[in-house]
What we know:
With about 350 residues, the protein is mostly beta strands. It is about 15% helix and about 45% strand. It is built from three helices and 20 strands. The strands form three sheets. The chain has a six-stranded antiparallel β-barrel. The protein has a four-stranded antiparallel beta sheet with strand order 3-10-8-5, with no helix packed on it. Strand 12 and strand 13 form a beta hairpin. Helix 2 packs antiparallel against helix 3.
Amino acid sequence: xxxxxxxxxxxxxxxxxxxxxxxxxxxxxxxxxxxxxxxxxxxxxxxxxxxxxxxxxxxxxxxxxxxxxxxxxxxxxxxxxxxxxxxxxxxxxxxxxxxxxxxxxxxxxxxxxxxxxxxxxxxxxxxxxxxxxxxxxxxxxxxxxxxxxxxxxxxxxxxxxxxxxxxxxxxxxxxxxxxxxxxxxxxxxxxxxxxxxxxxxxxxxxxxxxxxxxxxxxxxxxxxxxxxxxxxxxxxxxxxxxxxxxxxxxxxxxxxxxxxxxxxxxxxxxxxxxxxxxxxxxxxxxxxxxxxxxxxxxxxxxxxxxxxxxxxxxxxxxxxxxxxxxxxxxxxxxxxxxxxx
Length: 341
């Protein structure tokens, strides 16, 4: 009897162990369950993919003209201030030559009639815009005494962006290439531009060689000011309506074929499949074959933070409100990019 009881206890223990192992295997194989070693599906979605090179730049006037007075004297009236767009031949200010200023000062001691006489007899000198453009600086005030070497205004025909491109990235830049630009003062107001000039002379700072690339805004925003710091994203390539996966789902692989565990539906069983990949920007990778929209790729040991489940692709960063629709770069080097998702 004792031997029989021991055998029954042993059988019960074995059965319990088998049940525990079976449950563990089932739980491990079910996607979506929490745990440090669990597998979760990362869904493929259709979106836009963009490869960019990001460089720093500065807003500068293309051609800056300093307006000097034709004679020495005193500024009587200022008609135009900073930020005004003027036409060629427009009067910007009135001034009195040194002789006229002396005559008017003496006339004021004799009365208004004397002042009026000399004002009509000795006309003031106009300060005229030599070209059409934007007044970016006014350097004098009314009543100020000036000489023929005093800069009254700085006139710019238009504002451009000059970017310092590292020599390792210069081969990726070409004339008429499109770019998207933001300035630090208005990061939520991007504007488009194109490359108009690539300088041949290198600039070397702290043993870093770069080349100045000039970009012309397609439409100059009214918020631009000379001297602003700009962030330039040169667009290397752009694809619309392509299938995308987070780069971590394929461990950073690109332009190759990888073996992945794919889940066709929410309750579908994982199947092993060959998936062809295109380029990556470090955050996203393009899927060229072997996967359909909505299908999931199982990723082992995926840990997600709060709110990740609300993303259209599990674990893929959602587009930030007011942002540029670009994913962060993480592929090493200076090339960055992202896509509108």
